[in-house]
Amino acid sequence: MRTISSVLGSLARVVSTSLMLLFAVTTLHAQDVKEGEKIFKSKCTSCHAIDRKVVGPALKGVPDTKSEEWLIKWIRNSQALIASGDAEAVKIFEEYNKSVMTSFTDLSDDQIKSVIAFIKDASVEKPKDPTKDGAAAKDDNASMFMILGLIAVVVLAVVVIVVLNRVIRTLENVIAKNQEAIAAQQEPEDNQRFVKFAKAFVKNKKLVGFTVLMLVALLAVGGWKTMWNVGVHEGYKPVQPIKFSHQIHAGVNKIECQYCHGGAFKSKNASIPSANVCMNCHNTITASEHYDGEISPEIAKIYRALDWNPETRTYGNNPKPIQWVRIHNLPDFAYFNHSQHVVVAGVECQTCHGPIQNMEEVYQYSPLTMKWCVDCHKKTDIKSDNKYYEDLIKAHERIKKGEKMTAAMIGGLECGKCHY
Amino acid sequence: MIENMLAMNKKNLLGTVCAAVALTALVSSCGDKTTRSTGLEFSRNMYDPLAFNPDQPNANFADGKTAQTPPKGTDPVGFTRFEYANTLEEYERAGREVKNPLVVNAENLEKGKALFTTYCSVCHGPEGKGDGPLTKDRSVTDSRGTRQLENFPPPPSYHRTDKANSSRGGFMADLTDGKIYHTIYYGHNSMGSHASQLSPEERWKVVMYVHELQKK
Fold it and tell me: InterPro entries, alphabetically (chain B) (predicted)?
């Protein structure tokens, strides 16, 4: 008996210790994965993703094909591994056009191991989230309700149709009996009423006068408003070929206006960015998490315009320009220069373009009429701390002193003064 | 009888006119005052230039665009050629050979800072720590609802104290003139080329300011 109890006791101990060990191992593993994820996000994501090729290869399943020892060496210093003549390392280096992976000499073995643990963990297809399953079950319930509801609606509809049919039949009977009488009464009465009213209206001169006056006034006000708004595109919000949101890019992402519209610094035109500027970010950003892993259809339009293949990450030779619709269109007889306003005067973009950082779709905020320009020029102070005013003041002083001033000295030899 | 009716109609008419005016006022004050059309236009041809604007279609060119890229082998006015290819060896060579032609002074540094703020800080952060707004968690609420936006992978910090490695060897804080210029010109990893956005002189001003950040 004693032997049996001792055997049972030892068995229980073994089971409990092994359970504890297992628990410890799993929690350790979980910690590794968490730590690995942290390191991965701070050091690896600029070149790698789990599911797709970015600059470097997709890492899904990689830990299964290479030994941990080799991976540690490669991650710590891939160039040293290649230099040592490791066949596998040289092969990968050649395959990726000799692009060099950053060395991470500052990472410890344990840290690299945890990164590998994270990649292993992320490579495994996760079973569906329990909360999502719950939602699916709820959806099923909902669809059951919907089906029952539909049946009820159909039954109700049939009943209503039958009842209505009966009512219609009885009404038809009644109408058939009374039709002649109704026809005889109704029509002349209606006609008579209208004629009576018209006659009375025409007889009352005051009322006619008043109505005419009202009509003239309405037409005048409407006409006046319409005339003043001819060619004024205030509030114009055309549909653009790509649903580009300034709210996301300028508002939430806080990208400076001139990152894309650099022309506002240098020239007359604020310039629409060429699509290579979009690709500075969108070679990486595809918004695929909102489209079930597919590239956002709007971002895909940039790729099509540039003939960029996101799979192979190469450009084709058949690019097509994106045909944006021009919103602000100053007539050709008026000259406007962005750099003069933005660089010299330091005017904020929003002064003329409105709360552009909140616009999901851009519209013309200002009327761009001559009155609008003149009103602003009347109240804006000049910034006199630049060379133009230095030269101007110098010239005035020379004139005061009675010195010789030629046209050439005040810019009369500049090409653009004659050839514009 | 007729007079009675007229008095009634007068009231009705006045009421109708008032209602109509009120209705027009209400309708015109509703909405966000934006429209899909340009509205009434007179002599539209005065808005369309005779000369071609850079962003206009142009049948005179094979690709239908007015804005043409310069022909191969030519340089725009004010541009100097950067004779280094987009390879690791050439990057290292540029790092050894190319020096900033501009003198370090307060004016150039100030301009460099302004350019860095516009063209770089959205990823590299205002202080070059690799913590620009694009690398942080952020969400937008618009007509499609509220959603999280994708983060851009953060670039390594320039600061000496952060001891961040460059992917092409050495510390970010040790990058030389030529290496930084090469990176602006060609881009690297997730960073695209910024050559079309910055003139050579502006690139050198940015390089000058990056050296300031490396001292931190």
Answer: Cyt_c-like_dom, Cyt_c-like_dom_sf
> B173 to chain A: which residues are within 8 Å by CB?
none
Q: Is A317 exposed, middle or buried (0-12, 13-18, 19+ CB in 10 A)?
A: exposed
Same domain? A250 vs A356: yes
Q: Does the distance separating the beta carbons of A271 and B54 come in below 8 Å?
A: yes
Residue A269 inside a domain? The answer is yes
Is any Cβ of chain B less than 8 angstroms from the Cβ of A338? no
- A253:B163 CB<8 A: no
Same structural domain for residues A225 and A252? Answer: no
Select from A37, A259, A323, A339 the residue whose CB has the most chain B CBs within 10 Å, as the one to mutate to test that interface: A259
Q: How far is residue A194's CA from residue A201's CA, in Å, rounded to a whole number?
A: 10
C-alpha to C-alpha distance for A237 and A240, rounded to whole angstroms:
9
Residue B57: phi and psi, rounded to 5, are: -65, 150
Residues in chain B: 216
Residues of B in contact with A287 (CB under 8 A): 149-150
Separation in Å, CA of A252 to nearest CA in chain B: 7
Answer yes or no: is B125 within a domain: yes
Judge whether B68 lies within some domain.
no
Percent helix, percent strand, percent coil in chain A, to nearest 5 = 65, 0, 35
pLDDT over 90 (residue A298): yes
User: Based on the domain organization, do A278 and A369 belong to the same domain?
Assistant: yes
Q: How many angstroms separate the CA atoms of A291 and A308, rounded?
A: 19
Question: Do the Cβ atoms of A58 and A52 come closer than 8 Å?
Answer: yes
Q: Is A107 on the interface with B (CB under 8 A)?
A: no
Say yes or no: A278 and A331 in one domain: yes
- The complex scores an ipTM of 0.84
CB A66 within 8 A of CB A144: no
Express each pLDDT in A112-170 by its tens digit: 888 888 888 877 765 544 444 434 444 445 566 678 888 888 888 888 888 888 888 88
Q: How does strand A314-315 pair with strand B139-142?
A: unpaired
Token pair 């073995």 in the structure block, residue: A109
Residue A364 and residue A256 share a domain:
yes
Residue A353 belongs to what domain range?
Answer: 246-378
Q: Extract the tokens encoding A15.
A: 């089971």
If asked whether residues A362 and A406 sit together in one domain, one would say: no
**Buried b / exposed e along A267-277 (16+ C-beta atoms within 10 A):** eebbbbbbbbb
Whether residue A406 sits in one domain with residue A347: no
Last residue of one domain, picked from the residues A183, A201, A229: A229
Q: Do A255 and B193 touch (CB under 8 A)?
A: no
Using an 8 Å CB-CB cutoff, list chain A residues near B168: 100, 102
Nearest CA in chain A to B122: A255
Q: Does any domain span residue A2?
A: no
Percent of chain B with pLDDT over 90: 47
Domain count of the fold of chain B: 1
B147 vs A contacts (CB less than 8 Å): 290
Cα angle, residue A282 at apex, residues A328 and A39 outer, rounded to 5°: 140
- For A308, the enclosing helix (H) or strand (E) is strand A308-309
Full domain range(s) for residue B199:
88-215
pLDDT band at A279, cuts 50/70/90? Answer: very high
User: What CATH number corresponds to the domain at position B134?
Assistant: 1.10.760.10
Flag whether residue A357 sits within 8 Å of chain B, measured between CB atoms. Answer: no
Can you give the pTM of this predicted structure? Answer: 0.71
Q: State pLDDT tens for residues B145-170.
A: 899 998 898 899 999 998 888 888 88
Contacts of B64 in chain A (CB under 8 A): 321
